Amino acid sequence: MKVLIIIPNDALGGAEQYLKMVASYFKEATVDIYFITAYNTKLWDNIKNNTNQHFCSTSNKFLGVLKFLSLSQKQKKEYDYVFTSHIYINALVGILLKLKILKTKKFIARESTSIFLRYKGLKLFLYKLAYKIGYKKIDLLICQTELMKNQLIQHFKSIEKKTKIVTIPNPLNFEYLLNERAKEGVNLPFEYIVSAGRFIPEKGFDLLINAFYHVKISYPNLKLILLGDGELKPDLVAQIKSLSLDNDIILPGHVNNVLSYFKSAKLCVVSSRIEGFPNVLLQMMSQNNNVVSTTCAGGIDKIEGIYLAKPNDAESLKIAIEKALSTSNSTSNRSKFDNYLSERDIDKFIKKIIAIT
Q1: Which residue, of 134, 167, 200, is where some domain finishes?
Q2: Do 194 and 272 belong together in one domain?
């Protein structure tokens, strides 16, 4: 079996984690992974032995696309499956299939976010254009939630005539997460709550910092750890200083293993304004019994044991955090969380795809 996976870069956000799981699942197959640009993160090195990894450009997306086109034309491989998970890449592959530059038996694309809720203006127009010209050749389009699927169909009604759309919740490697839970967490000399993600507006870290400022009144010894990096880091640092929280909020940057931080935390928090579905929430649930999340994506309000907050509402987030911190025993959440997570295992996910296609 031959499998092709195409990714914008070698970072490891939610969409990339999904594609990495797909690549790992097909370990008995020939798996080609093309990164349009490369940041030299080394985050894919642990599956190098089972995959053929191609880095098209170290700096420029346009040059990366050109190199990918060149390599595709030269190699002229025919694949059994092509997997993608970014709108522009989905559209690019659709166009290449139409032009017969790429060949595959099945093209499986996944929506990475609800663009009609997240974007406006020129950016939304360009995404709509990508749908129009590139989505006709998709054999199966996976939406993470029913909300995402409904938004897509509502704003792009003709898409159902062009491709099969299904809702399949984000997968995870349940066995791996269980093994990580059995390991030691980080050992820090203080109690803390933790969140993780790119420092972008959608993640709501500014809201979390404001909420934490008020939580500190009742929990003066508590720290907040924000794992990650991104364009908003200077703004977040300025906000932390303006609230005199320099000694209470820690920004370690990217860490190799967020799970060890989740496991040892007093509480894990997802503060996002909007998401397709936050994979980090699933990771938190796998390691910790005490989890707060905003209802930033469809389906979160249906998860038993999660403390819920309204999106884009620091006061609601503060109330949810304080409620979670005041709970004396959350061990009953473990079986609830594990039952929920086991249904999302990557093995079941791929078998669903194969059955549908």
Answers
A1: 167
A2: yes
**Shared-domain flag, residues 37 and 180:** no
Alpha-helical (H) ranges within the chain are: 14-25, 61-75, 87-98, 115-118, 121-134, 146-155, 159-162, 174-181, 205-218, 233-242, 258-264, 279-287, 314-326, 333-342, 346-356
Running DSSP on this structure, what letter comes out for residue 247?
T
Unique residue bearing structure tokens 């473990």? 334
Instruction: Report yes or no on 222 lying in a domain.
Output: yes
* pLDDT 10s digits, 51-96: 999 999 887 899 999 999 998 888 888 999 999 999 999 999 999 9
Provide the domain count of the chain.
2
Whether the model pTM is above 0.70: yes
Label each residue of 126-154 as H, E or C.
HHHHHHHHHCCCCCEEEECCHHHHHHHHH
User: What tokens does 318 get?
Assistant: 């503060």
Q: Are 312 and 273 in contact (CB under 8 A)?
A: yes
Distance (Å, whole) CA 268 – CA 270: 7
Q: Give a yes or no: residue 350 inside a domain.
A: no
- The CATH number covering residue 279 comes to 3.40.50.2000
Sheet holding 192-196, edge to edge: 249-253, 223-227, 192-196, 267-270, 291-294, 307-309
For residue 210, the 8-state DSSP code is: H
**Residue 354 to residue 213: CA distance in whole angstroms:** 48
Residue 271 lies in a domain: yes
Q: Which domain holds residue 280?
A: 175-342
291-322 pLDDT, tens digit per residue, is 999 999 989 999 999 999 999 999 999 999 99
- CA 340 to chain CA centroid, nearest Å: 18
Q: Are 64 and 104 in contact (CB under 8 A)?
A: no
Residue where one domain finishes, among candidates 140, 167, 194: 167
Count of C-beta atoms within a 10 Å radius of residue 182: 7
Q: Which residues, other chains included, contact 336 with Cβ-Cβ below 8 Å and sequence gap of 6+?
A: 304, 305
Contacts with 233 (C-beta within 8 Å, 6 or more apart), sequence order: 199, 251
